[in-house]
Write a structure and sequence with these properties.
Blueprint: H1 2-9, H2 22-37, H3 51-62, E1 71-76, H4 83-94, E2 100-104, H5 107-111, H6 116-129, H7 139-150, E3 155-159, H8 165-172, E4 183-188, E5 203-206, H9 212-224, H10 234-243, H11 248-258, H12 264-278, H13 282-291, H14 295-308, H15 314-322, H16 327-336, E6 341-342, E7 349-350, H17 353-368, E8 371-372, H18 378-388, E9 390-395, E10 398-403
Helix pairs in contact: 6-7, 7-8, 9-10, 9-11, 10-12, 11-13, 12-13, 13-17, 14-16, 14-17
The chain binds adenosine-5'-diphosphate and magnesium ion.
Magnesium ion is lined by residues 83-84, 160-161, 187.
Length: 404
């Protein structure tokens, strides 16, 4: 009886919403049910290591059992330490306890695009209310719509890779926006972003490096496909793993690269290269994998880094084939080196932002010596085309710009 009374209070769909058309109404309901039922788990990591301890620590800070407040938790560390990975793991673990959830990825990158923040606000509103028709005319209009609606639901919101306060203001400007029991998880490289005065009750969680045992495990998974290194390479593996300084991204890239090396001599010389590059910073160290690629593989890698992260592979594949490359094999090589991955659900190229920036730095360094192969920022493209005097060579579908 009580349950029926409760159910009677839940507002549903009425025929008025579809001007009396029953067929249309059924379509709307089926679509809604499918989006609710098809909540898939996010892919976390190929070979998770040390994730359970990190997860347990974070769960303590999140304190999801406590329903008296909303709470904002910031995960911070340098890039490549595993913030996004941990946020996905915790999202999978706790999302079922909330009325609605939203995981917003790559905020730093998207926010820099035209209308980027508005598109993120739309994503948030879509994820929480499954309403495709929401119109947002400006960032402040978006803020108004979020405030107006979001308080009615206990939400789990993950804001991944925030790098300035305006992004936070647009998506979760104040704890008062959210109802009790809601949790907002922010990942950032910049701890100061979390110090916004209106974000009362926020908690910080600093993600630390993997310890030496975990580092060796992660390296071994990628270099040998198992948790411990081959006995023959045990000592050298420890040295390589320690050169990664507990950074999962570096362990993954080094492991994938050493996978191809079979002799002691090859290992020694690669280790030496790593050590030499280390003083010059992380990008130089990661660049060792890029340097080992052949010329066409390098071009495909740089194209993806500059243009195709977040894009499907089909169109660029046609372009690369037109250039006489063998994109299918090349993409496999790049994936094997852990430089690129393809999202299983969306089929889009993915690349860690450190790797992408390393690729873009390579192109920018070429530009300093008068070679300009790729332009990806609107203002730079305009500047080059208007002011620099360029010769554009078209090779099949491929292009090369030479500054004169
Ligand atoms: N605990 C972990 N176990 C295994 N791999 C990890 C772990 N944490 C991170 N990684 C891997 O390291 C890389 C960088 O992690 P990511 O979460 O993207 O770092 P961040 O968000 O801090 O830049 C990813 O490829 C991820 O799969
Ligand atoms: Mg990240």
């Amino acid at each position: 009886m009580g349950a029926l009374a409760e159910a009677g209070k839940i507002s549903g769909y009425t025929l008025a919403a579809t001007n009396g058309y029953e067929g249309k109404l059924i379509q709307v309901i089926v679509k809604r049910i499918l989006t609710e039922v098809n909540k898939t788990s996010l892919f976390v990591a190929k070979h998770p290591v040390g994730l359970d301890c990190r997860l347990a620590d974070l769960m303590e800070v999140l304190d999801v059992e406590s329903q008296d407040l909303a709470r904002i938790v910031g995960i911070h560390s340098m890039g490549g330490m595993g913030k996004t990975t941990l946020a996905k793991a915790v999202y999978n673990q706790i999302s079922s306890r909330f009325d609605a959830c939203s995981f917003i990825s790559n905020i730093r990158e998207v926010a820099n695009q035209a209308l980027g923040l508005i598109s993120l606000q739309k994503q948030l509103l879509y994820d929480v209310f499954k309403d495709e028709n929401v119109k947002i005319s400006s960032i402040s209009d978006g803020i108004g719509k979020i405030i107006e609606r979001i308080r009615g639901k206990k939400v789990l919101l993950v804001l991944d890779d925030i790098d300035n306060k305006s992004q936070l203001d647009a998506l979760a400007g104040d704890l008062d926006w959210f109802c009790s029991g809601s949790r907002i998880i922010i990942t950032t490289r910049y701890k100061h972003v979390l110090k916004a005065p209106r974000l009362k009750h926020n908690e910080d969680y600093e993600l630390k490096q993997l310890d030496s045992t975990q580092s060796l495990q992660l390296f071994s998974w990628h270099a040998f496909g198992k948790e411990v290194p081959d006995a023959k390479f045990a000592k050298l593996s420890k040295e390589v793993a320690s050169a990664a300084a507990g950074l999962p991204l570096a362990l993954e890239i080094f492991g994938s690269h050493f996978f191809n090396l079979k002799t002691d001599k090859e290992w020694q010389s690669m280790l030496q290269k790593l050590k030499d590059a280390q003083d010059k910073g992380l990008h130089e160290t990661l660049k060792i994998s890029y340097d080992a690629l052949d010329t066409d593989e390098k071009k495909v890698f740089l194209d993806i880094a500059c243009f195709f992260v977040g894009q499907q592979r089909e169109l660029p594949t046609l372009m690369w084939e037109g250039c006489g490359f063998f994109p299918d094999i090349t993409i496999k090589v790049l994936m094997h080196e852990s430089l690129v991955s393809i999202n299983d659900d969306t089929g889009e190229f993915e690349m860690h932002d450190h790797i992408r920036d390393m690729g873009r730095n390579i192109v920018q360094a070429e530009r300093k010596v008068g070679k300009c192969s790729r332009l990806w920022k609107d203002d730079e493209t305009l500047d080059v085309l208007q002011n620099k005097g360029v010769r554009v060579y078209l090779f099949n579908y491929y292009y090369q710009l030479n500054l004169i």
